[in-house]
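Researcher: Last one for today. Full complex below.
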Amino acid sequence: MEIENLWLEIKCKHVKADTGKLNVRKLRNSNNPVLKLRNSIEFNTWFGIASILGCIYLTFQFTSIYIYSLMLILIIQSGYFTWRLYQSKLEFEKLSQNWNQSIIQALQIQIKLFKKTIQLLELRSMVFMPLGYLAGSMMIYDKNAISQDNPVINFSVIKSAIILALITMPILYFGLKWFHKISFGKYIEETEDTLIEWEDFSDDN
Amino acid sequence: MTDSEFIGLINSNQATINYLLNLYVQDKIEKEDLKQEIIYQAWKGKDKFLQKSSFNTWLYKVSLYTILTFKRKNEKFIKVNLEIADSNNNSEELTNDNAEQLYQYIRGLNPLNKTIITMHLDGFTNQEIAEFIGVKANNLKVKLHRIKENIKLNLK
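Model: Here's the assembly. Have a good evening.
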């Protein structure tokens, strides 16, 4: 029997057995890496917006020029990364809707986008978190200093906060890199293998 | 297209989504994930359906595109040997058995070969398959020929 006829027969059997009302279940924690990354982008974008608003609010609560400067740096870096993450979100959306694009092209773009976004998240955490608690420690000191009628800034406190921030930066960066490797590493590796196989086919023949 | 029209069309064509998911995905949870993703993507892009082809063909391409770009891992389906037992004399049973084995064999192919052969068997032209994958139609013809030869060889 011809393959086509056999296929038609088995396809009819499978399709017939599979009709009925549409049943879509609400998913809570999807394990799909693409969906996980999409959720992470979403969360980080909103977190970035909240950080900017928080920093603007705090700017009006303190008088120290150092805190102003730090807040300004935090607002700029949050704004930059939030904007970049939002761009990634749009690129992912465009990719998943661009059905006229070939699968090889889609996979190439997806891998690039995946790596770029992950790197963005790592850099953002590396810069934001230490700056955040540097600002926090300065604010705590500033409040205390004002109440004690002392000079606003004690440089030894700032120095130790900066040293702590510098030590934490690589820890955060490599920690998040490790976390991303566990979450997305296998998916990236497998997608790259698939892509190589597909690209080889387009080159070989 | 209104939302209710879209839901109606998805309802009557969801067998296509399930058929492709069964071919490409083994894991139940991943199937659910991908089914929702396909419906979500199709709903978001429903205005891109220009009625140049049937809704079913459009949904087929959307589903396959989503599966191939979202799928988590290259699952190892059990490879099936298509040789038929000589002792089986009932022709109808033989055909059913053959068809099921062919299905399982195709399910066990790698995503590239599976995409080529299923799209071909589902009525897409070589040009359409080549454009979908991103290769030249002539290259695809050669590959398709090889896959079919392999299947025939195993069916004999």
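The two ends of chain A are 30 Å apart (CA to CA). Chain A touches chain B through 47 residues (CB under 8 Å).
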